[in-house]
Amino acid sequence: MVVRVELGIQQGVNSTLNSYLEKLLIMLTGSFGRKGTNQLHSWLQPLWGNSPGQKFSATGDEVIAGLLSSNIFPDALLGGHPDRLRGVWIDSSNPANTASNTKAVERALRSLDLWVVVDVAMTETVRLAYYVLPASSQYEKTEFTLFNFEFPTNYFHVRAGVLPPLEGTLPEPEIYTRLARALGLLPGDNVLAPLREAARRSRVEFAAAFRASLDPAAAGAPKEFPFMLAAGQRRMFNANQISRDPAWRRDDPDGALLINSADLDALGASDGDWIAIESTVGRLIVRCKIDDSMRNGQLALPHGYGQSYPAPDGECLTNGPRINLLTESGNRDPIAGTPYHKHVAARLSLVSAHEAAAYQMQSERIHASAAG
Question: What is the per-residue pLDDT across 326-344, written as a single tens digit (0 to 9) for each?
Answer without folding.
Answer: 999 999 988 888 999 999 9
